Amino acid sequence: MRPYVIVNVAVSADGKLSTRERRQVKISGSQDFERVDTLKAGCDAIMVGIGTVLADDPSLTIKSPDHIAERTRQGKPEHPVRIVVDSHARTPPDAKILHKGSGKRIVAVSEAAPTERMQNLKSLSDVIVAGKKQVDLTYFLHKLAEEGITRLMVEGGGTLIWGLISEGLVDELFMFVGNIIIGGYNAPTLAEGPGFIKESDFPTLKLIGTSIIEEGVLIHWKMGD
Ligand SMILES: NC(=O)C1=CN([C@@H]2O[C@H](COP(=O)(O)OP(=O)(O)OC[C@H]3O[C@@H](n4cnc5c(N)ncnc54)[C@H](O)[C@@H]3O)[C@@H](O)[C@H]2O)C=CC1
Ligand SMILES: Nc1nc(O)c(N)c(N[C@@H]2O[C@H](COP(=O)(O)O)[C@@H](O)[C@H]2O)n1
């Protein structure tokens, strides 16, 4: 058993998530950020990789007071559980994700995480050990289901998304394609990692819908069987 997993990313017109220096780029406009906020508000948890925490220092909080009020009316915490996949417990103790907004945080580490860093994190968030050298995503998602998380949104980055896709752990993908070109051989895309080689291994997607948002296009896919 695992949560239903929805990936949301914003890419440039040339398919990049950020610059080659992994510097955060504003790809979405205000309307797309509002859509993402609504998507977040409908989820039990939001997850990112440690690369995103180190690059962007996101808070992953819900921004709209209306969404927060609605969640409260439904008896849910103001913000979804915020999760970092962080094999070596590198999450900085002052990271916004650990401090901004109320509610639970979970850092997923591996058995290779240095004990002292893991102990420090334990005073700031829940820590779940999953996997030997890197986080075992299948096992970790099973643990999240045991914690009552049924709907999980993943905000990036490309390494974590690759890890999830390659293990068959993604159900839906929202991709906002913005009207900028970033370029760069080493600028990340939504699926980093070694990549597939055989065509028979390529996951296929089912197109659910497209819409124009400001100067960009939102593409909504479901992962095929
Ligand atoms: N445009 C967008 O929508 C978004 C862009 N970004 C960008 O993405 C970049 C960060 O992405 P990445 O460097 O790829 O880092 P990432 O955020 O994907 O984190 C990857 C890290 O997760 C950890 N990890 C542990 N177990 C893993 C597993 N089983 N599989 C995969 N990863 C595992 C590893 O330490 C790995 O280095 C930044 O430049 C950021 O600005 C991030 C989120 C959204
Ligand atoms: N949807 C979207 N559009 C963009 O243009 C982006 N740069 C991102 N990036 C990710 O959004 C998260 C920001 O979180 P907070 O506002 O701090 O809560 C973070 O994960 C960025 O990488 N997303």
From TrEMBL:
Q: What's the superkingdom here?
A: Archaea
According to the UniProt record, what class of enzyme is this? Answer: oxidoreductase
Q: Sorted alphabetically, which InterPro entries does this protein's record hold?
A: DHFR-like_dom_sf, Rib_reduct_arc, RibD_C, RibDG_C, Riboflavin_Biosynth_HTPR
Instruction: Tell me if NADP is a UniProt keyword of this record.
Output: yes
A Pfam family this chain is assigned to: RibD_C
Q: Which pathway does the UniProt entry assign to this protein?
A: Cofactor biosynthesis; riboflavin biosynthesis
Q: Does the keyword Oxidoreductase apply?
A: yes
E.C. number: 1.1.1.302
- Name the chemical reaction catalysed here: 2,5-diamino-6-(1-D-ribitylamino)pyrimidin-4(3H)-one 5'-phosphate + NADP(+) = 2,5-diamino-6-(1-D-ribosylamino)pyrimidin-4(3H)-one 5'-phosphate + NADPH + H(+); 2,5-diamino-6-(1-D-ribitylamino)pyrimidin-4(3H)-one 5'-phosphate + NAD(+) = 2,5-diamino-6-(1-D-ribosylamino)pyrimidin-4(3H)-one 5'-phosphate + NADH + H(+)
**SUPFAM superfamilies annotated for this entry?**
Dihydrofolate reductase-like
Q: Which UniProt keywords apply?
A: NADP, Oxidoreductase, Riboflavin biosynthesis
* Record GO terms (molecular function): 5-amino-6-(5-phosphoribosylamino)uracil reductase activity; NADP binding
User: Which residues belong to any copy of the Bacterial bifunctional deaminase-reductase C-terminal domain?
Assistant: 3-218
Choose any GO biological process term that the UniProt entry carries and state it.
riboflavin biosynthetic process
Instruction: Please report which protein family the annotation says this sequence is part of.
Output: Belongs to the HTP reductase family.
Summarize subunit and interaction data from the UniProt record for this chain.
Homodimer.
The protein, known as: 2,5-diamino-6-(ribosylamino)-4(3H)-pyrimidinone 5'-phosphate reductase
Look up and give the organism this protein is from: Methanospirillum purgamenti
Q: What is the lineage of its organism?
A: Archaea, Methanobacteriati, Methanobacteriota, Stenosarchaea group, Methanomicrobia
